[in-house]
Records
---
Amino acid sequence: MQTIAQLKLRPAWVGYNTQKVPLDPHTGRAAATNNPDTWGTAAQAWAAKKRHRWAGIGYVFTIGAGVVGVDLDDCFTDDGHLNDTARQIVQMLNSYTERSPSGNGLHILACGAIPHSVKPPGGGFEMYNELRYFTVTGRQFGAAAVEQGFVSGDIEDRNDELNALFVVFGGDTEPTAPQPRPAIERGNLTTSEAEVARALAVIPPNGDYNTDWLPILMAVHDAFPDERGISLIESWSPGYTGEVARKWRSFETTERAGRITIASLFHRAKQYGYEPIRRIATSSARRGSDITDALAQRRRVNEHGL
């Protein structure tokens, strides 16, 4: 769990103009969601907003922070109440929720890890874990309920709930929860070394260290936390032999909030032409009930291993 005050201290904030272009608090020029040098703290972003008369400030999602954003558009009925789907999502996540700049949507922040961001066709729902920013208004939704203790005003741990939403709203692979770790230890590994090698083969090995190379190491380590994983990475990205082994050891000794799973590797590879093994498709007409069903199933798996 994190508080909004803690989130504001992270150097992951930008300003934005009326076109929603992210802006660097330090220089006033365009910021990039894959370049931390163009971000600042919330205080720095707010000071720059006032100085340059920007439209507002926003938070940039990074996998390392372990915070996921859910964006709900046009979620209010004519009489000002939440529509059924939005209400169910808000109640399920029960985490920090605020109105979007338009006032017609909601932004929800929750702690957890999903394989990749989700933006299904048709709009209305988006979910991000990296390389995007959320406008942050501070106009908390349901403030009275928060004061009475019925709705959380903090950024709560909601990994199961986020992954249930991931499945229902268009995730193209089944998410893996941080616990238990990992399939290889249970003698039930379904991801082969050959399949991982095939996915790695289509990904350029010379990307940015923090946003490209390191997340891929974490993803492979999720499925192969032994010498096989090191060998796969060294074959894919020669020249980092000692660095790979050091990172492997650090993954074992450091507890990461919101682990990156092997699914994120396959998602990234798909962007370079890799064909995923399986897909999960959900009819939009069934999404309301499927949200509850998916969450119930994940809880049964976590509690009973069923």
---
Amino acid sequence: MAETKEIGEKAVKFGKTQDVSLKTIEKAPKDTQQKYHAISSKGESLKIVEADVLSSSTKDDIKTQLPKAIVVKKNLKKDVEILYASFKKFKETHSNAEEIKEFKMACDKVILAAQKSHTEIKEKVYTIYDKKK
């Protein structure tokens, strides 16, 4: 999800982040805000199941914890695709380039946090199963 999007004179990639405030989110349409918050809450859920997976020490523990992480991650992936489509529509209809950039950064922040959790889970599974990346 690291597609380049032109905003103003700078190229910005969807999937890269900087810190932004929640006031930025409020500038987006209500529907887009709801999609952002859905991803944010699922990202938090992924962090919770990540902690469960990372606390696993055996293959049986992983087999118990991993299905929850897989379900959350798949749902999150669908929501990211929906949010990206919403972001593109917001970008086309919104006139303030700075607000567009800030909203994109807010989206990227939650996406990258979820990607980090996914990577941590994957590394734990590889460690437990002695697989090479």
